């Protein structure tokens, strides 16, 4: 009888984690929604605009732990960045684009490469690409930066969850879009791999824990 209860609970947990029609599962869909920008051939005009954007990058303010820092900006994927929106922070755009380039990649426990990511592995490797050092686990990441109210969330913030049956934060994603009270975030889920989900999905609405700002 106990085994039956365990099996039923496990099946219920998996079904509750299944994606809904609102999630974004590919770079093609993300591009149509304006979240992802395909790499383009570099040219003088784009480079000029990008160099101008670099001057507007804001480094993180001193927080409770000084290990979170920007040493330099990785310019290896300059051509990936859409610089048309003057109100979009250059570094935040790079981070979102770099993470979105992994859409569709499978979940892999402990993974930090395109062979597969776990949730913190995706965030860790994305920020590290731009020389921003974060802890390796979601629980430790939740202690970095500055915790903010959900109503003040911005693109590039980290969003954390406590999955059912757990007693502390064990899942993390990055905010990529905000529509009113809906927050869309990119993450690596155990069921679907790297996708963009929404806080309006019942599962994430129930398991939401907090939002941290890493970049000020």
Report on this structure.
With 216 residues, the chain is an alpha+beta fold. The chain has 7 helices and 8 strands; from the N terminus they run H-H-H-H-E-E-H-H-E-E-E-E-E-H-E. It has helices spanning 2-16, 27-32, 44-54, 90-100, 119-128, 138-141, 202-207; strands at residues 112-113, 116-117, 146-148, 158-161, 171-179, 182-189, 193-198, 208-213. The strands form 2 sheets. It has a 6-stranded antiparallel beta sheet. Strand 1 and strand 2 (116-117) form a beta hairpin. The longest helix is centred in the N-terminal third of the chain and has 15 residues, at 2-16. It is globular, with a radius of gyration of 18 Å.
Structural class: alpha+beta
Largest sheet: 6 strands, antiparallel
Shape: globular
Radius of gyration: 18 Å
List segments where confidence is low: pLDDT < 50 over at least 5 consecutive residues.
4-21, 41-88
Helical proportion, percent range: 25-40%
- SSE pattern, N- to C-terminal: HHHHEEHHEEEEEHE
List the helices and strands and how they pair.
Elements: H1 2-16, H2 27-32, H3 44-54, H4 90-100, E1 112-113, E2 116-117, H5 119-128, H6 138-141, E3 146-148, E4 158-161, E5 171-179, E6 182-189, E7 193-198, H7 202-207, E8 208-213
Antiparallel strand pairs: 1-2, 3-8, 4-5, 4-8, 5-6, 6-7
